[in-house]
Amino acid sequence: MNGRALVFVAICGALFGFGLALSTMVKPEVVLAFLLWRDMGLLLVLGGAVAVTFAAYHLVPRFIHKPWSGESFGTHPSEMSARTLAGAAIFGIGWGLTGVCPGPAIAGLGVGNWPLLLSLAGLAAGGFVQGFFFAPESP
Amino acid sequence: MGAGMGLLFVSTGLIGGMSTVFTSVWSYFSRAPFFQEGRFVSSRRWRLVYAAALVGGAFIWLACCGEPFVTGVPAWRLVVGGFIAGFGARLSNGCTAGHGICGMASLQPASILSVLIFLATAMVTARVVAAFG
After folding, report:
1. Complex ipTM tops 0.90
2. Contacts of A132 in chain B (CB under 8 A)
C-alpha cells in the first residue's frame, strides 16, 4: 500500500474516531444503558452509520471504477457458518459485560478513558487465543 | 462514523472493520501459521495506522468540543469482558464495526444474523450483570 493510501486511512480513522467520541460510544456507561433499553439513542447512531456506509458501498462504484488510491473496491464476505454465529454470541456476552467493543476501546483512549487499556489488553489476549488455539482450517 | 467508513471505501477500497487489528498485530510477534496468513500480514500496517488515527480522531473531538471521560466500569469486567469479546469477535470475523456497519451496509446475511445474535446475548448479559452486579 502506498503512502497516499495510508494518508487516506489515517484521515478516515480519525473521522471514525471522532464519530465514536461524538456519538458517546466511547462511554461504556452509555452503551450499557442502551443494552438495558434505558437509552436507545445508539440505535440511531448505528442506523446512521449503516445508511451512510450503505450509500458509499452501493452507489459510488457505479460512478467511479476504482478507488482514488488503490487498485479495486474490496469486499469482505461474511461466511454463514456455526463459527461466525457462535463467535457473535460469545462477542455479545463480552460486550454486554463491559459495554466496550473494539472500536471504542481504541478510540476511548483519545478522550482520556485510560481504564480502556485493560479492555484493550483483554481484546488482544482474546484475539491471540482465538488465532493460536482456535484457528480455522487454512483455506 | 459512517463518513469514515464510507470515505475509506471510496478513497482506498478498503473495508474498515476494527477487530481484525487484534489478530493482525500478532503477526508481528507470533509465528503461528494463522497470524502469518496473507490477509493479516498484508493489512497489518494500515490497520495499525487506522487504530492510531482512531485515537487521534477522538482526541480532536476532546480538544474541540468535549470533556474527558473516565469509565467507572470495574476493572475485572473490562478485562474479562474484553477477553471474551476479543475471542468472540475474532472467531466470528467481525464486531460491531465489521458486522454491524460494514457487513450490514453490504447486506450480508451472515453479518445481519450475527448482529441480531450479539445484540441479544449482550442485552441478556447486561441485564444479568445489572441484576447481580
Report:
1. yes
2. 30, 32, 34-35
Using pLDDT thresholds of 50, 70 and 90, give the confidence band for residue A138: low
Output the pTM of the full model: 0.94
Of the residues B22, B25, B115, B129, the best mutation for testing chain A's interface (the one with the most A CB atoms within 10 Å of its CB) is B22
Query: How far is B16 from chain A, CA to nearest CA, in Å?
Result: 9
Query: How far is Cα A73 from Cα A67, in angstroms, rounded to an integer?
Result: 6
Over 70: is that where the pLDDT of A139 sits? no
Beta carbons of B50 and B21 less than 8 angstroms apart = yes
Question: Where exactly are the structural domains of chain B?
Answer: 1-69, 71-133
Report the Cα–Cα distance between both ends of chain B, in Å, rounded: 32
Nearest-angstrom CA–CA distance, B7 and B114:
25
**Grid cell digits, residue A121:** 489488553
pLDDT digits (tens, 9 = 90+) for B101-126: 999 999 999 999 999 999 999 999 99
Q: Where do the DSSP E strands lie in B40-118?
A: none
Supply the mean pLDDT for chain A.
Answer: 92
Sequence-separated (6 or more) residues with CB below 8 Å from residue B104:
A50, A54, B111, B112, B115
Tell me the nearest-neighbour CA distance from B105 into chain A, angstroms: 4
**DSSP notation for A32-66:** HHHHTTS-THHHHHHHHHHHHHHHHHHHHHHH-SS
Cell, residue A79: 461466511
Nearest partner of A88 among B89, B5, B16, B56, judged by Cα: B89
Nearest chain B residue (CA) to A70: B12
Place of cell 446475511: B109
| Residues of B whose CB is below 8 A from A90 | 84-85, 87-88, 91-92, 121
